[in-house]
Specification:
By secondary structure, this protein is α/β, with parallel strands linked by helices. Helices cover about 35% and strands about 25% of the residues. It is built from ten helices and ten strands. It is globular and about 50 Å long. Bound molecules: adenosine-5'-triphosphate (ATP). Adenosine-5'-triphosphate binds next to α1.
Amino acid sequence: MSADHHPGTDPTSQTLYALTGVAVRYPGGRVALREVDLQITAGERIVLLGTNGCGKSTLLKVLNGLIPPCEGRLCFEGKRMGPALRDRDWERAFRRRVALMFQHPEAMLFNPTVAEEIAYGLGHLTRESRRRRCQTWANRLGLAHLLDAPPSQLSGGEKQRLCLACLLAPEPEVLLLDEPTANLDPRTTGWLLEWLATQAMTTVVATHYLPSASDLGERAIVLGEDHRVVFDGPVKAALADRALLLANNLAY
Ligand SMILES: Nc1ncnc2c1ncn2[C@@H]1O[C@H](COP(=O)(O)OP(=O)(O)OP(=O)(O)O)[C@@H](O)[C@H]1O
């Protein structure tokens, strides 16, 4: 495939994602998303809000190309993602640019040491760059003293920080985070919120923890209990709309 088909090579493209009428049903028929229409522009910081089971994790997996919609159209930089992901070169470029941190990310950890875990996604760098990048991210996430430890021996919060280090070390352009502060202590939570605020990358962060919502982005997308987008607008407006929060089980 020629380079002009690879994600990231269209300089005129500002719209990263375009979703039209996207629906997801899991095997067995459980509906997770209904008629989702959404555009995400490069550099946007989006907070994805909604109650348990409304489809936040599913939407992040759709954006990461892990779950194909059963209805509707999903495009990344103007290309239909389903067919594009079948192209190995396109997929590799896409995976390098777009990173998803799962809600329970420990499942991602499988290397014998913390250092190897962080270095795992850096295969495209030289040995020396890999070592330096690994050290930088271990320092940033307070893991420098654990580089030789097996990931299985880390605490829940340390595992969460390691998962973040693994995800951030390759320096992706699009970051999809599912409840990223769930296991983090206040200092690491503060660090992550401040760090995210300084980044130019596109972020979509799912949370139902409203107090950090306005630190996580400027645009809120609220999924309702019927798995549809019920609000798409400024975070501040969403948080000020008591009726919206009550109707969607985000406040009581
Ligand atoms: N693998 C699966 N198989 C069947 N149903 C699933 C699967 N994963 C999720 N679901 C269902 O899809 C719906 C949306 O789930 P999802 O995990 O996307 O919600 P969520 O908004 O992230 O929830 P939470 O805030 O509780 O993490 C739920 O009803 C859930 O039970």
